[in-house]
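Quick start: what a row looks like.
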Amino acid sequence: MKRSYVIGFAVSAAVLALLALAAWSLFETYPRARYVPPSREARVNEYLALDRWLGEQGIGVRVESRGDLDMISQTDERHIFIQASLFRWSFDAAIYLVQWVEEGGTLYLVFDSYSELESYEILFLLEEFGITAEAGFPAYNDVSDFPDYDRRFFFEVAPDAESLSLKDRNGAVKLVIAECGRGKVIVSGEPHFLKSTSIGDAPNARLAWAIFAEGDWLFIRGAARARGLLGDLFRQGNLPVLLVSLLVLIVIGFWAVIPLFGLVRNDTEKPGKPLRERFLAEALFIKKYGDLNIYLEAYMKEIRRRLAIPGGTGEDMQKSITEILAKPEEEYLIVNFLHGERIDYRDFPKLQKSLKTILEKI
């Protein structure tokens, strides 16, 4: 190895070492928090963390966006979560739910809009369990020791009802667990403590586990996942990466299909020969082999068709042709042609002219 190379390598290594030492001494590394937005599945399903948590604990979770009496009467789950605005209420459904709870079912009824307070079916259902629902905005203090309740609704329970009432900081009843027969009913406003943004807090997690720790659940609430053809792609993948991949695939496809880029060359089309020259060339070819009769046969075929005499003979047709022609020499040529004799090419123009004359006069 040359000496100059060794010196250059040593100088470069020394410079890099000095730069590394300066960077280590002058700059400081520290962790940086990076905001990661929630996935589309989390934005669509506010209860995604609850669903995954229960699934990890071996608790079955089935979610439906709408419900009615037929659905709950055919379900195998013994625990039902009903968002009141998404259920088709009727007195038959209310009576069925009361009997179903008494036989050992667990019903969690959620008030999510004020219209439920005017539903006679829902009010009838609550009265069977000794519960009254009311709306209002009492004084509220946000205290981290209490679960995240819905501020819009509060409840009253009959004194003789076997129930557990959970209150907020100001003493308003926000959640009721009432026992009836072998089952129980749970009533609350919109359960903010179950949503993904809140369930990680200790008070919310404890209350959620106390309610959902046993048995499989049927949830009648908003859609649990992104539906549609592209829903799973957007939920599982990254949309920008998908778009870039599609763009690259389209470019490669066009590049493979179109091998040459640029202006299209204009090739001048050579004009074909006139029709007269084509017939002349064909006639010369046939003349060379002595078969010009093929042209004359076309004329004679049309003449025979026009002079066709019912019950007539060839002599009758010859007589008709003789009456049309005035020149004996032309008559002689046509008679010979009618008898199948080959025509000399020198007589071809005369005979062709005579046949044309006959066609014009017929």
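That is the whole record. Residues 224-229 have pLDDT under 50 and may be disordered. Strands lie at 61-64, 79-83, 106-110, 131-135, 153-157, 163-167, 173-180, 183-188, 217-220.
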